[in-house]
Design goal:
By secondary structure, the protein is mostly helical. It has a single domain (about 25-110), classed as Arc Repressor Mutant, subunit A. It contains 5 helices and 3 strands; from the N terminus they run H-H-E-H-H-E-E-H. The longest helix has 18 residues, at about 95-115.
């Protein structure tokens, strides 16, 4: 009986971020930050309440405080929310200036992607 040994070499792929525009990279970072339903829920909650303490946010969501805290940190790192320390608590609010820019970026991106510029939008070549 003969055994054949096959060795597979893994090919590492690297994100060539420098090959993409800063606008594309920024839009991707924001999309990644928004890519979890808990983060969407947090933003909706902050929009409704205008400001919120992290414990209050955790009480409104079906997640542990630790998990909510991790999601808050992701949103804060993306610049979508701000967190101000007030004694032992952190009070979170939306960064409306950043959200306004994000809205413009996504609107421009989706308008371009949707081919809404002319009457050929329904005539996809696929």
């Amino acid at each position: 009986m003969t055994y054949v040994c096959v060795i597979q070499q893994e090919h590492m792929t690297y994100a060539k971020l420098s090959e993409f525009t800063e606008a594309q990279q920024q839009l991707a970072r924001i999309a990644k930050a928004l890519s979890h339903p808990a983060r969407i829920a947090i933003i909706e909650l902050l929009a409704a309440k205008k400001t919120c303490i992290s414990g209050d946010i955790a009480a409104e969501l079906p997640l542990s405080r630790t998990t909510v805290s991790q999601h808050l940190q992701e949103l804060k790192a993306a610049g979508l929310i701000r967190g101000d320390i007030d004694g032992l608590t952190v009070c979170y609010c939306l960064d409306t200036a950043v959200l306004g820019r994000v809205q413009q970026q996504f609107s421009a991106f989706l308008e371009q992607a949707a081919c809404c510029n002319d009457d050929t939008a329904s005539n996809c070549a696929c």
